Amino acid sequence: MRIIELEALLDAVDEAELMQELEAAFVRYSAGQAQVMAVGHLGFDARSGDCHVKGAHLAGDDLFAVKFVNSFAAPANGEPGSDGFIILSRAQTGQVVALLRDRGALTDIRTALTGAIVARAIAAEGTRTLGIVGSGKQAQMQAEAIQRHLPMERVLVSARRPDRADALAALLGGEATDLQRLCAEADVIVTATAARAPLIPAAWVRPGTRIIALGADAPGKQELDPAIVASATVVVDSRAQCFDHGEAGWAVRDGLLDPASVIELGELLARRERFPADRTVVVDLTGVAVQDLAIATAVWNRLPD
Q: Which of 50, 151, 169, 182 fits as disulfide partner to 174, beta carbons 3.0 to 4.6 Å?
């Protein structure tokens, strides 16, 4: 078994190749070609922390992956708040071939690039303004990834702490603002917070807005008013996961959303469907283990022997 440290893993990341692999993994997942473990989760509210364990195998592939990742608020001593690793094993023999000690970085990268994939897939013609709700690491990475793949002219940032919104807006070359104005002006909104109650009321969302919701990735988390989800076309990365602990799940449990109306991301990517400009679209991303498999195998295949 090889142990690969973070620096070598980052050197092996090819963004264009990885986005293709992520798209293909979602398509295969929605086509029923994947085994995915039930998500293991531990929550530590006192430190705004989560531990996730996920695993996946795509039919016919030589390798499968199991990921262990912790995501906590960064401690005051300057240590990173994330840590973890991905284990790659052979599907035929069970032999462990590699431990990718990425400290959570590969999860951050695959999440950010998935946001860019989604934004590219759902953005209406004439999309020019990106709204970022949140001020943490993933909020920054989402904004940067989407800006690399869509011609955004403006970036608006809103966060619970105005000083952190100001700092992120300055870093992105954008503007900090209040959440109501962001909702009124942004064409694509990304929510990347750890909220446990809705941040955005339905009355603030104008028709045709495209929302990528990332924060509700574990039980109890919620960023959107369920009425927003109920009135939108809803795309989920995984029906099973999103109905259990995503934004879609809140609306389904309230009887506001018909589960049969929900589109899976892999289905959307396979048929390349485009939505009318006046249709509100909500994409609920809880993080699927095939993403971890895709990035782990892509990086592994690019490492020198």
A: 169
Taking a C-beta distance cutoff of 8 angstroms, is the pair 110, 294 a contact? Answer: yes
DSSP string computed for 77-136: TS--SEEEEEEEEETTT--EEEEEE-TTHHHHHHHHHHHHHHHHHHPPTT--EEEEE--S
Output 173-182 pairs: Cβ under 8 A, ≥24 positions apart. 174/130, 174/132, 174/143, 179/133, 179/204, 180/204, 181/156, 182/131, 182/133, 182/156, 182/157, 182/158
At residue 197, φ and ψ (nearest 5 deg) are: -155, 150
Specify whether the CB–CB gap between 297 and 20 falls below 8 A. Answer: no
pLDDT for 76: 63
Q: What is the pTM of this model?
A: 0.95
Q: 211-227 burial, b if ≥16 CB within 10 A, otherwise e?
A: bbbbbbbbeebbbbbbb
Comparing CA positions, the residue from 194, 197, 201, 210 lying closest to residue 250 is 197
pLDDT of residue 2: 97
Contact by Cβ (8 Å): 265, 283 = yes
Which percentage of the chain shows pLDDT scores above 90?
92
pLDDT at 46 over 70: no
Q: Per-residue confidence at 78, pLDDT binned at 50, 70, 90?
A: low
Residue with tokens 């990268």: 109
Chain segment 123-142, per-residue pLDDT in tens: 999 999 999 999 999 999 99
Q: Residue 206 gets which letter from DSSP?
A: P
